[in-house]
Amino acid sequence: MSPRPSYDLLPSDGAPIKAWTRGVPIEDQAASQLCNVAKLPFIHKWVAAMPDVHWGLGATIGSVIPTHKAIIPAAVGVDIGCGMMASRTTLNASDLPDNLRQMRHVIERAVPVGFNEFKQVPAPNEAMWKKLSTGLRRVMEKHPKIGPKRPERQLGTLGGGNHFLEICLDQEDRVWVMLHSGSRGIGNMIGRYFIALAKKDMKKHLANLPDKDLAYFTEGAEHFTDYCEAVDWAQRYALRNRELMMRYVLEALPRAKGLPPFQAAVEAVNCHHNYVQRERHYGEDVWVTRKGAVRAGLGQMGIIPGSMGTRSYLVRGLGNPESFESCSHGAGRAMSRTAARKRFSCADHEQATAGVECRKDKGVLDETPGAYKSIDAVMNAQRDLVEIVHTLKQVVCVKG
Fold this sequence. Notes:
By secondary structure, the chain is α+β, with helices and mostly antiparallel strands. It is built from 10 helices and 17 strands. A hairpin with a 6-residue loop joins strand 14 and strand 15 (311-317). The chain starts with 7 loop residues before the first strand and ends with a strand.
């Protein structure tokens, strides 16, 4: 008798939907979106739903969508290349100063957050922008309406929403710096532009789609290659953005009083969780879109963060072919931002983030831990996708 598979098959009128969601609630709206994607004629084998799956634009966040000769821009999303980076230092918990608030303020001064950007372009940004700007110029020669707004000033900046910078302790009380961000304003512009362009190109066919936000480009179509070039550029920008942020945080930390000298990048991981790339699965070359999912190839390192009051995990992929070598990208939202603001108070948030130096005001209630699914349940549901290498618990959290 063969062992029971670790996923469940969700009802589908199209391709199968394999969901690693045992012990984790999945909303009806998200299940409906998965069904819509499964109906598309170019799905390769099946759609994989990760344990953090929840509603998104067109396609669910927390899904892996393998496709033959087609890409859905809304499935890639507008925060193209969004992902995580973590770097271990030589510091231990005993090295941290008593005043963690000062550490938070040092980080906030070093890295612009929210809608802020660098007023003057730092030298590392200039050097990085020289390497990146040529690719953007090629994209804009064909699509000048993208119209970037100072992307060189947003390199090395955090952005808003669920993006964050954290100081964490691992299971051995070693100090890590961890951060979450993507391709900032320029990635958002590229994403929105090509989502609208896909709808325009498919205007005659939108009525036949289960959701108009699933408009797609096919290989050989007018704008397919342009989109691939633009999204590849945005993914590289996001990767470099995280590298620069990490550099600025690590350079700033010595300004915190009482912190001894240290080295960083003893171990480092930098991975996307909103992206598309060409991969080979089940003997065929296909496009794999991970919308809120991390590549978890055999031995490949990834990061699965919890909410701002819970644990996060550095993991090693097990290369499970049935998930297309993927895992979740986090805990996943349990409710909308609006619902979280209505449900939780500042007192609730203070209690949920006890022991973490972070903002405790109403401006971050939509990011309070109760707005997210249980990271423990999420990790338990994907034991055959990844193995845990390090368990991190934040002591300082800077939210966008």
